[in-house]
Design goal:
The protein is an alpha/beta fold. It contains ten helices and eight strands. Bound molecules: zinc ion (ZN) (2 copies).
């Protein structure tokens, strides 16, 4: 069984096809999926999915790319995270690729999420793009990692260097690979995936985006996470079953409120 550790099946284009999506998960042996929150106005529909389906979990957080959206407070996130179906805080982090200019608000928002994670003892889902130095620095400053009393989390849809992966793992974080790792052009990322031990790895789709080969360019969905696992198994030269078992065990070890 595989687990999609990061998807956005509450987005209308996927939510409209829910029966199909659940059937594809079953067909491809994808036992669970974590539906990740991107802003507070849409959080109720994320939570509703986790309440409706026992194998769908949810997180609460505000994505760094969402500029014109209500800013969360630590108290608010901690309060919302008390719900038993909420297993993580995020997605949060920094994105200097999509947005430019003075992004101090993004860094402040990121700090808010780390504080909420420490207080609620729920792990972080971190998004970082063209901002790895600041991301790692703020994780350290705020004590996101287990080395500083935090509960760590996952570096989702990882596309950074091995150095960034190591700095994250040192803080107790897991590294999650998406369909990007299957792309022909992703040689550097494949080299990173080869070095990240299976014991520190999660797999995800980030659907509806980033469909893996052989579905590249199509709308992605949780069932396709099996193709990410297949690619990693080949890359590492290990049985697919081992990738399935280890990444699923990692998921439940990290998201300890998921059961
Ligand atoms: Zn993301
Ligand atoms: Zn996402």
């Amino acid at each position: 069984m595989f687990i999609d550790s990061h998807c956005h099946i509450d987005f209308p284009e996927l939510a409209a096809r829910m029966p199909e999506i659940l059937a594809k998960m079953a067909e491809n042996k994808v036992s669970h999926a974590l539906c990740v929150s991107v802003d507070l106005p849409d959080f109720p529909r994320v939570l509703a999915l986790a309440e409706q389906f026992p194998h769908i979990y949810a997180s609460v957080g505000v994505h760094p790319d969402y500029e014109d959206t209500p800013e969360p407070t630590v108290e608010q996130l901690v309060e919302l995270a008390k719900h038993p179906r909420i297993v993580a805080i995020g997605e949060t982090g920094l994105d200097y690729y999509r947005l430019q200019g003075d992004l101090e608000w993004q860094r402040e928002r990121f700090r808010t999420h780390i504080r909420a994670s420490r207080e609620s003892r729920k792990p972080l889902i971190i998004h970082t793009r063209s901002a790895s130095e600041d991301t790692i620095r703020i994780m350290r400053e705020e004590g996101a990692g287990t080395d500083k009393g935090g509960v760590a989390g996952v570096m989702h849809c990882f596309t950074e260097s091995l150095e960034v992966a190591r700095a994250s793992m040192e803080q107790g974080f897991y590294i999650s690979f998406s369909g990007i790792v299957t792309f022909k052009s992703a040689k550097e990322l494949q080299a990173v995936a080869l070095e990240v031990p299976l014991e520190r790895m999660l797999i995800e789709t980030d659907s509806p985006y980033l469909a893996p080969v052989p579905y590249r360019g199509k709308m992605n969905e949780p069932g396709f996470v099996a193709h990410v696992a297949e690619f990693i198994a080949k890359l590492k030269g290990v049985p697919l079953e081992q990738v399935a078992e280890q990444t699923s065990a990692n998921f439940f070890k990290l998201f300890k409120d998921a059961a």
